[in-house]
Protein: SDR family oxidoreductase
Organism: Hymenobacter nitidus
Amino acid sequence: MNDLTDKVAIVTGASRGIGRAVSLLLAMQGAKVVSVARSADELDELVHKTNGLAIPADVSDETDVQNVVDETIRHYGQVDILVCNAGVGSFNLLENNAADEWDRMFDVNVKGTFLFCKFLAPHFKSRKSGHIVGITSDVARRTFEHGTVYGASKFAQDALLGSLRKEVRPHGVKVSTIYPGLVDTYFNESKPGSPDTEKTHLKPVDVAQAVRYILEAPAHVVIDELMLHPLTQEW
């Protein structure tokens, strides 16, 4: 089993939901966690529990992302793990989606993943180690009504991670993709903890445990892809 003690992990979308659960769980395993999100207030509350770094940033802004990577390396000397979790979504008929909704989803879901991987891939390759975990969605592998724009962004994110996996594998760098189904979070302005979703959805910690499982795999093992659904959700 790969020990996560003192591993330096950047987690995006860390202020709520899955990202928060991942940050807390990795910190519990001894990792040095750098939590990234736009909300400085929520990050400040989180960093007291992770005892790591909190860096407010827009994942779609190249300068912000470069700053996160530079500040992490300046503070800790290296990065071992990147968890690309930041994501947004809304669901509508194609013709009812505004162009700025397309931009918003592709900026966060695809460009955010691209930018962090762009700046960290050379670092990982030079060290002959590193692990990128992309948290996408099961809709990266299926289509559904009202999901044209969100689904397109997740298909694109999945393709990016899949291609990157082939690029960095010869350098000893791992890329893993998690495809969660329904999760009880604040996603799409939902409020977690309702009687219905508590019984039918995954919890953020369920996805966090999947991240831990992937990261703790032995050095010679890479878990390329992991699909995760609540028992009540039909694929």
